[in-house]
Design brief:
The chain is mostly helical. It has five helices and two strands, in the order αααββαα. The N and C termini lie far apart (35 Å).
Length: 169
């Protein structure tokens, strides 16, 4: 239970960080505050959580090579983004993002521009954020991690159920 909760907290943390990054970028581009991003109601984007968790678990071994870390972050996040777009479209018959107007895109689902940002983000996550997040989480007693993990899981699952209901109605 502890390991699940720890992983879920990492996932949730990166989902929130991704939401903040997305809202910031979109708001700056549109020159107005845009808070509604993604499929869920809450201030988190699970696709960033999946990417952040993947980097935490599998890309830290590239810590000593910035080029390898950049490339692996870019490739893995673009794969996650492409599969996420495809899955959401198949399930809900909706597209949450479309890069068709960007150069070097694949089916409007991914593009080189965001890939480069994912590569840079991977370096930041693995070199800076992960070490800080890991130190913080390891300093918290296991029981507290379990309680926080369960609470966040319940919030997320409730949001998921409500969001699915809203999308289908």
């Amino acid at each position: 239970m502890y390991n699940y909760c720890l992983l879920f907290i990492i996932f949730f943390t990166y989902s929130v960080i991704g939401y903040i990054a997305e809202v910031t970028c979109v708001s700056m581009q549109s020159e107005k505050l845009v808070l509604s991003r993604g499929f869920l109601i809450g201030p988190y984007l699970p696709i960033f959580g999946i990417g952040g968790l993947f980097m935490s678990l599998y890309l830290t071994k590239y810590d000593n090579s910035l080029i390898e870390l950049f490339i692996m972050s870019m490739v893995s996040c673009l794969t996650i983004e492409y599969m996420g777009s495809l899955l959401l479209e198949k399930i809900f018959k909706l597209r949450w993002w479309d890069y068709s107007n960007k150069k070097y895109n694949i089916n409007g689902r991914i593009c080189l521009e965001t890939g480069v940002l994912f590569g840079l983000g991977g370096i930041i996550v693995v070199k800076l954020v992960n070490p800080l997040l890991n130190r913080l989480l390891l300093s918290i007693p296991k029981l507290i991690i379990i309680i926080i993990g369960i609470i966040l899981s319940l919030i997320f699952i409730t949001d998921l159920i409500i969001s699915i209901h809203i999308t289908y109605n």
